[in-house]
Amino acid sequence: MLQSKMKWNFLDEPTIPQSMNDGMHISPMIMRLLAQRGVTEPADIKKFLSPDLADLNSPANLATIEKAKERVYDAIEHHEKILIFGDYDADGICSTAVLLHTLKELGADCDYYIPNRFSEGYGPNESAFRKAYEAGFTLIITVDTGIGAVDEVMWANQHGLDVIITDHHEVQETLPDAFAIVHPKSSPAYPFQELAGVGVAFKFAEYLLGYFPHHLLDLVAIGTIADLVPLVGENRILTYHGLKTLTKTERPGLKALKRVCRIDGHTTEKDVGFLIAPRINAVGRLQDADLAVDLLMTEDENKAEQMAEMIQALNEKRQRLVKQIVKEAEQMVDKDRGVIVVAKKGWNEGVLGIVASQLVREYDRPAIVLTIKEDLQEAKGSARSIPSFNIFESGMRIRHLFNRFGGHSQAAGMTLPLDNIEKVRDELDLMIMEELTPDELRQEIDICQTVSVTDLDEKLADDIERLAPFGIKNPRPIFHLKDIPSETRQIGSQNKHLKLKFKKDQTVLEAIGFGMGHLYPFITKQTNVSIVGELNINEWNGNRIVQIVMHDLKIDEWQLFDHRGKKVVDFTNFIHENERGLILGNEPINPLPVRTTFVSYAMEPSSMPKSDTLFVIDLPPDLSVFKKIMHHVRPMNVHMCFRVTDGAYMKPFPDRDDFKWFYALLFKRRTLDLHKELKKIMTVKSWSKERVLFMAKVFFELEFVKINNGIIQINPRPSKKDLRESKLYQQRLQQAEIEKTLYYSTYNELKNYLLNCVGHTPALKEEVSHGL
Asked: What is the 3-state composition of the chain as percent helix, strand, coil, each rounded to the nearest 5?
């Protein structure tokens, strides 16, 4: 038995209307996946599978956009200087580039400004506005930021600076008194509320240009995917077509960036999310974000190549920083607490959100990662959370402990006095312990359907891609498969990854679990393994192999781990966290491995604790005793860890004719000196010394003979007894039977025997409960 890391949620069977497939020619699996997304009407299916730019909403429906346009046109006409004020993440950088391209095309005298994450922090600030004012700018346009800049806009108004805000973040109770605010959530007439910052900037660009700027869609796709907004509605349309534009982009900066990312062929949302966006984000995480904007704006291919290489170097540095900080942070994690709060001087604040995310994935706990600033006597950092715990609401309940705090349900940023770090940890820990059960602390994964090996083929994998681009509210489908792997092995550097292979009829399916190599020892042969993951095609050297990229796995059934004959077994490798294993034997191990309890065969079975994992380090003195222990403890995982070096089973056991011949010799001789006669007997009968001595001891126990210093004398008047009355004889038979049953048996023979002892039967609950 192996518990899953995540909580598995099997989605309900969707209702599929009769009309759903009218003229659509889609497979039953795709119909099911569409229905789970609420897409069931033929017209909606067509729009979903073939997103059309014609279905985008008109930017004219955004409140005050006409006023904003007139102000920009007026600034251009009068040669006013326009400043684009952006943000240092990929969405903000792409938003800045979109509007900068637009204003330059319109002939504006314009420039951009992105605040420094370390010295200025997020969003507009008075110092930056003052610099703009002193440099002669009269119009500031924010992109992907500004909706909370009440004081900064007030300062701008007082100094004759007009501010147009384009943003998509949550609207605050008090809006800035800006010249215009272009924001979907403050526009009652605009139907779609979930645009990314770059989506809003693109809408404004379209309205300013007076035509649909296809050439800017590559930037829109990057910013939208990077900002993790829902990929439905307008976001789906913009991203779908934006990825096509990105695939064939002629923008020198993006071509160079794709080369360092080694992206060939069709560019996907995965390419953006895992390769392009992290590199753009890396710039603002480690320094001023200007390099990333300049990359997206340059027309010089040589400069583009140089900048792309610089960004690649920054990303590699970012990766090293994250790896080092994660390693240091893990040493500070208290696994007994409901929340992780770690802090250290010198940690780069630009990567702390990434570190927090990795800690959340590893430990299934909300995580706050802080860098200590001793000169200010404060700590600054980021928080990431789990779905069941709203870190923003919880943080707001203890807002008085922070100097600054903001964010949303799953992420937050903060600064706080050093003296309050422990108080924040205690308060959040108390909230979690009061509000959440241990099961609710686990990550969750939604599973679309249970499938068999033969269900999964190239056609299905290709069909699924019709649902792309995948993202928030349109996740890549997760499938569940339960079968016995034909092959299990560790792969990759330091065996970090796990690879399974399944065969059914003529179908071969591979499953790869990145970072799951540590689970290899927990998978026993001929055992059903349940895996959940996404289906894709692994293309290598021209070969296309269907595979599941595993997100999680578990084993529901009873398991036997066969370590018989091994010299050393590291028990701690087989005990899960928050679990204790039982070690069963004659004498305790010293020192006792961590998270284990020793129980002796001499103990009363009913006094032994229950345990899911049992390690048997010695053969039992009696099979009946062993069976009672197994039945009481009822382990789900049994590890047989003993060795037999001088056993009874493999030694020839004398039969009745052997005993008869030896007794006849003794009866004839009356007295036999083993010192003189032993070798002769061994030679004549081809017996071992141990065999001769064993028979002599049995005769002695039954009082057939007397033995003194190797001299055997026959008893002239022995009582009539059967060989089976000898305890030594019975012990030898019993020991041989124990060894035969528990040590020399095959894996399947031993497994069946132990299952009978424990009384376990294969669990069918999962199959029944899901009706599959």
From this structure: 45, 20, 35
Q: What is the dihedral of CA 314, 315, 316, 317, to 10 degrees?
A: 50
Q: For residue 147, what is the enclosing H or E element?
A: none
The encoded tokens of residue 516 equal 């799951």
Can you tell me the distance from the alpha carbon of 208 to that of 288, in angstroms, rounded to the nearest whole number?
29
Q: Which residue has the tokens 């609401």?
A: 393
**Confidence check: pLDDT of 139 > 70:** yes
- The H or E element that residue 84 is part of is strand 81-85
CA–centroid distance for 472 within its chain: 17
- Residue burial 141-165, b: 16+ Cβ < 10 Å; e: rest: bbbbbbbbbeebbebbeeeebbbbb
Q: Kindly report the length of the chain.
A: 772
Contacts of residue 173, defined as CB under 8 A and 6 or more positions apart, other chains included, come to none
Nearest CA among 288, 283, 293 for reference residue 315: 283
CB atoms within 10 A of CB 694: 20
Contacts for 288-291: CB closer than 8 Å, 24+ residues apart: 288/88, 288/114, 288/116, 289/86, 289/88, 289/92, 289/93, 289/114, 289/117, 290/114
Strand-pair partners of 597: 582
Q: 20 near 31, Cβ under 8 Å?
A: yes
Sheet holding 581-585, edge to edge: 559-562, 637-640, 613-616, 581-585, 596-600
* Residues ≥6 apart with Cβ < 8 Å to 167: 142, 143, 144, 145, 146, 147, 181, 182, 183, 197, 200
**Radius of gyration in angstroms for the set of CA atoms belonging to the chain, rounded to a whole number:** 37
Average pLDDT over residues 34-46: 91
The amino acid occupying position 278 is P
Closest CA to 87 of 165, 175, 179: 165
Q: Is the bond leading into 469 cis (omega within 30 degrees of zero)?
A: yes
Per DSSP, the three-state class of 122 is coil
The structure's pTM equals 0.84
pLDDT digits (tens, 9 = 90+) for 712-729: 999 988 888 999 899 999
Dihedral pair phi/psi, residue 182, rounded to 5°: -100, 105
Residue 493 confidence (pLDDT) above 90: no
- Give the integer Cα–Cα distance in Å for 326 and 702: 71
Residue 614 CA, chain-centre distance (Å), reads 28
Band (pLDDT 50/70/90 cuts) for residue 387 is: confident
Residue 544's pLDDT band (cuts 50, 70, 90): confident
User: What DSSP element (H or E) covers 471?
Assistant: none
Burial label, 116 (beta-carbon count in 10 A; 0-12, 13-18, 19+):
middle
For residue 755, the cross-strand partners are none
pLDDT confidence of residue 762: 46
End-to-end CA distance of the chain: 21
Which residue spans within 307-443 are E strands per DSSP?
A: 340-345, 367-373, 378-384, 404-408, 411-417
User: For the segment 744-770, what is each residue's pLDDT rounded down to a tens digit?
Assistant: 999 999 999 999 998 865 443 333 332
Closest CA to 117 of 368, 375, 417, 348: 348
Assign 81 to helix, strand or coil. strand
Single-letter amino acid, residue 69: K
Instruction: Decide if 595 contacts 581 (C-beta within 8 A).
Output: yes
Q: How far is CA 381 from CA 302, 446, 715, in A?
A: 37, 31, 92
Q: Crossing angle of helices 301-330/277-286, nearest 10°?
A: 70
**Strand 543-554 relative to strand 559-562, pairing:** unpaired
What is the 8-class DSSP label of residue 210? T
